Amino acid sequence: MTTAQITVLKPGLETTVQELPGRIGYLGQGFPISGPFDARSFRLANLLVGNRRDTAALECQFLGPKLRFESAGLIAITGADMRPKLDDTPIPMWTTIAIAAGQTLELSAALTGARSYIAVSGGIATPPVLGSRAVFHMAGVGGSALKRDDVLQLGESDAGGTILHVAQERRPMMAANGIWQIEALAGPNDDWLDPASVDTFFAAEWKVQAKSNRTGIRLTGPEFAFSARALDKDDAHGSHPSNIIDHGYPLGAVNLAGQTPIILVFDSPSTGGFINPFTVASAALWKLGQARPGETLRFCRIDRDQAARLRAEFNAMSSPEVLDRV
Amino acid sequence: MLHDSPKFYPGGDRAIEVEIGDGMDFTVNFIVHRLVAAVREAGIAAIEDIIPELASFQVNYDPDRMTYEDLTAEIGRIHAAVGSGVQGSLPSRLISIPVAYFDPQTTKCIDDYCGTYPEKQPDPELVCAANDLPDRASLMRRHSQTEYWVAALGFWPGLCSLLPLDPQARIVAPKYNPPRTWTPKGAVAIGGALTCIYPDRTPGGYQLIGHTPAPIYDGTQRLFDFRDSPALFKAGDRVRFVPVTLEEYAHVEANVAEGTFRHDIVDYQVFAVDRYLEWSAARSGKAK
Questions:
Q1: Total domain count for chain A?
Q2: Same domain, yes or no, for A112 and A225?
Q3: Fewer C-beta within 10 Å: chain B N or C terminus?
Q4: Which residues on A lie below 8 Å from B157 (Cβ)?
Q5: Strands A253-257 vs A243-248: parallel, antiparallel or unpaired
Q6: What is B2-85's CATH topology?
C-alpha cells in the first residue's frame, strides 16, 4: 500500500499548510505564532473529515490551488467561496466529500471572503518545525507556500467515512455589504493617544488596504492625535509620537506606525518600536482573515468579560456539535 | 527610570505588557530578564509564552485558566520577592562576529536608498556626524571596542537588539524615515542606541555600517551551531564584533557555503553583574 499523498498541480496565490495552536513558545526568539487566519472555518473543515479540529490542513488565499489526490479519502472545503470543482464538476463546500484515488480538486478565485480551508482525512503530515506544522511563509519557517509539483504526505486516518454538513446558519458569516464589525479592547497603549482619538477609532470606518496579508492588515482612515505621554517622553522611545521603546506586540494589536494603523496578525512581527493603542479580541481575529482589500472595518469597543463570552461562543461554533449528519 | 513596581497594560484578552521602567539601559533590561526567569520558574500553567524586551516583557496567557487580575497580582508578588537590586552572576556566552565594515554590499544598499532619497546622508557619514567621530576608521574602532549585551530578540526570527556594555562605546543614530524596502542578510546596523544584525533579507530602518558573512539565523539548521535552534542568539549572550578584511570575509563565506563553518563561541563564561556595573560607572566617570 502506498502512503497517502497530494500532488500540487497549481499552487494558487499563496497556499500554505497551517495547524493549531501554531508555533507556541518561540516569540521571544522572533518567531510569530502563525496558524490559520480564520481558525473557525479551519476547525470546521477538520471536523467534517473526522480529524481532530486542530489538525494540519491547507489555507488558500484569494485564489485556490489545483490538487491531485493520489489515494482515496475524505475532504472538506470551508471558508471563502472559491467554487471548488472535483474533476471539473462543481462540489459543495461545508460538507464531507468522499474522493477516489486520482481525482483532481480545483479552487478558483474567492467570490466572498478571502481564505478557504481544505482539510483531508488524516491531515497533512509535513515535518513539524519548532513544534508546529504551521507555515510562516515570509521567512520559510515550517516550509513555504505550495509550489507546482510539490507532494504533500498525509497522516493516517481512522475516519469512518461519515458524511457531515455545516448548516448555513452555523457557518461563519461573511460581511454583509463589505462592512465588518470587529470587537476590540482598548490598550495596551491607548494612553498614548488623545482621548478624542480613542473615541474616533471606535466611531470611524476603516478601509482595508490592498497591501494587507498574513503579516498585517493595513488600514486607511482618520488621523490620530497624541497625548502628553507620546509627545513628551524619554529620548530612548524615539522621535515620532508613535515611537516607543521596543516592546512585545500582542496578536491582534492595532499597531500605529506614524499615522497608518496596521493590525498585527498571525505572521506579524513579535516585537517592535511602535505603539499598540488597541487590540482586536482573540475571538474576532477570524474575521480579519476573511476581510478583503477595499472592505470596511468598524471597531466595536468591548471589555474583558465580553471578550470571554466571545471566546466561549467561538469555541462552541467550532465544535463537533455544529455539524449535522447527512 | 525604573518603576517601583511593574506597570501592567492589557494587550487584548490574551496578552499583558509588563513595563519595568521608562528608559533603556543595561540595569532595566537585566531586571526584565531576571523577572522573566523568575516568572518562568514559577511554572504558572496559564502562561503560554513570554517575550522579554528592552524595558518590558509581554506575557501571553490563557484567560480561561487564569484571569488578568490574578495573573498580574501573581507577577507583582514575584517581582516583590525578586526585588530591584542588581547583583549576582549569570552564565553568559561570548560570541565573536566577524564584520567587514563599510564593505561593497553595504555601500550598494545605501546607494540604492540614496538613489531614491538623494537628500539622505550616507549611513556611515551620518553616524560619524551624530557622534562627533572624525572618520569611518574611528567609527569602526568605537563600534568594535566593546562587548554587546543581547538585550532582546524579536521582530523577525533571530533578529537581535544589542546594547554596548562599554559606556564609552555608545553610538546613537536616528532610524530611516521612510524605512528601507530591503537590507542585505547579515547587515550590521545602528538605530537609537542599539546595534542589530539582520538575520535575513528584510526591510529595515537602522543605519548600515557593515556586514557579516557569519549567519545568525539558519532556517534549515544545517550548520553545527544551529542544531538546537535556527536562531543563534539568546537573551543574556554577549557579542563582540571583530573587523575583518574582504579576504577573511570570503574565507568565512566559503566555509558557510561548504557547511563547515563554526561560530567562535566561548560558553564557559560567567557574567558578574555587580562587578560590571562598578566597572561601567568608573568608565562613565572617566568619559566625563
A1: 2
A2: no
A3: C
A4: 29-31, 136, 139, 141
A5: unpaired
A6: Gyrase A; domain 2 (3.30.1360)
For B51, the closest of A27, A307, A311 (CB atoms) is A27
Same domain, yes or no: A223 and A90:
no
State how far residue A68 is from chain B, nearest Cα, in angstroms.
28
Same domain, residue pair A168 and A184: no
Non-local CB neighbours of A146 within 8 Å, separated by 6+ positions: A8, A11, A12, A15, A16, A58, A65, A152
Q: Which CATH architecture has domain B94-287?
A: Beta Barrel (2.40)
Distance from CA of A74 to the nearest CA of B (A): 33
User: Checking DSSP bridges between strand A66-69 and strand A104-106, what pairing results, if any?
Assistant: antiparallel
Tell me which of A172, A196, A216 is where a domain ends: A172
pLDDT tens string for chain B (288 positions)?
899 999 999 999 999 999 999 988 899 999 999 999 999 999 999 999 999 999 999 999 999 999 999 999 999 999 999 988 888 888 899 999 999 999 999 999 999 999 999 999 999 999 999 999 999 999 999 999 999 999 999 989 999 999 999 999 999 998 888 889 899 999 999 998 999 999 999 989 999 999 999 999 998 889 999 998 889 999 899 999 999 999 999 999 999 999 999 999 999 999 999 999 999 999 987 654
Whether A30 sits inside 8 A of B9 (CB atoms) is no
Residue B125 makes CB contacts below 8 A (sequence gap 6+) with none
User: Does a structural domain hold residue A323?
Assistant: no
How far does the CA of residue B62 sit from the closest CA of chain A (Å)?
A: 11
A29/B11 touch (CB, cutoff 8 Å), yes or no: no
Amino acid, res. A267: D
Subunit contact B11:A188, Cβ cutoff 8 A: yes
* Grid cell for residue B252: 568565512
**ipTM of the modeled complex:** 0.96
